[in-house]
Amino acid sequence: MSEAVDTLDKGKKKESVGEFIQKTREEMTRVSFPSRDDVRKTTLVVIINVIFFALFLFLVDMFWVYVLDGVTWVFNKITGV
Questions:
Q1: Residues 78, 70: Cα–Cα separation, whole Å
Q2: In the chain, what's the furthest Cα-to-Cα distance?
Q3: DSSP state of 30
Q4: How do residues 8-62 score in pLDDT, each as one tens digit?
Q5: What is the sign, positive or negative, of the torsion defined by CA atoms of 34, 37, 41, 47?
Q6: Which single residue of 14, 17, 38, 72 could bond 34 by disulfide (Cβ 3.0 to 4.6 Å)?
Q7: Residue ranges per domain, the chain?
Q8: Residue 29 in 3-state DSSP?
Q9: Across residues 66-80, what is the average pLDDT?
Q10: 42 Cβ partners below 8 Å, 6+ apart?
């Protein structure tokens, strides 16, 4: 593992903390943040999807419980248990 890291670092000069902060500030000027409206819309989509899939998985789970209870009942009737 350390050999892989060493190969990445070859030929690169270590930068100082000040250079790192300066490059970070330059990069942050290029970042675009979503608007408040975009955040609200995507949050609403996420909440609706979570509710939908929770209900869907609940119904699928209840269906399988019903099916397996039926299979167990039939098995018990056949074996006389």
A1: 12
A2: 80
A3: T
A4: 656 667 889 999 999 999 999 999 999 999 999 999 999 999 999 999 999 999 9
A5: positive
A6: 38
A7: 34-81
A8: coil
A9: 95
A10: 34
- Residue 17 tokens read as 């903390």
Q: Residue 63: what pLDDT?
A: 98
pLDDT score of 9: 58
Computed on alpha carbons and rounded to an integer, the radius of gyration of the chain in Å comes to 29
Token pair in block for residue 20: 């790192």
User: Measured between alpha carbons, how far apart are the two ends of the chain, in Å?
Assistant: 59
Helical ranges in the chain per DSSP H: 2-9, 17-28, 36-79
Six-digit token string for 6? 């060493």
CA distance 53 to 14: 48
Amino acid identity of residue 77, one-letter, is: K
